[in-house]
Write a structure and sequence with these properties.
Structural class: alpha+beta
Distance between the termini: 92 Å
Largest sheet: 6 strands, mixed
Strand order of the largest sheet: 1-10-9-4-5-6
Shape: globular
Number of helices: 6
Amino acid sequence: MSGSVLSEKKGDSFGVYRLILLLLVFLVFFALPFFPALFSDSRFYGVNADSKAPDFVLTDLSGQQVSLSDFRGKPVFLMFGYLNCDSLCHNQVMLFQEINALNLTASKPSPVFLYIAMDPERDKAEKIAQYFDAHADNFISLNATDYKSAQAIAMKYGAYFSRSGKMSSGDYEIDHPGHIFLIDQAGNKRFTYSASHKQADRIISDLNFIRTEEQKTITLPGV
């Protein structure tokens, strides 16, 4: 009898510990999106992340190979998107347009806006170019040979994405964090913006900071 009671108490204790563990896991996952803000520099709008931006080689609309290093000397805004995306990707493209419009009277060099296609099987280069490249000359869409190649690049940027839904019928979505990356003229990843960063003027403030910083590193002849 006492053994049965003891077993029941152990079972109850295990159930309590399991519930506490599940609550802790839930709290951690709930708090993850807020962790970067805890460590971000209050001077900036984006999350400051000064590290070398992973290089890549993809193809543009014409089929020419393009690498990130080709844009050295210009700031670069980078996003990963797909045409069947819900409002997230489209809002980011509109944010790029707004940044570009506000930047027309700003200091140089002008930024390049890169769109890496996450869904090359369904999104052909011509369709993406009509959607993205047509906005301006500094809007450039880049394409991988397949889904896994695009995914590998995103993983290097900490922007892992995955497909969910019916793969066989092509009726699937792509789950992705929706990050935008600002890369400076020297090829360093300087700021990361989440889907909640929607203020173009404040992003331009970060852009102007890295421009000014770059100017300070230039040694003028005779000085």
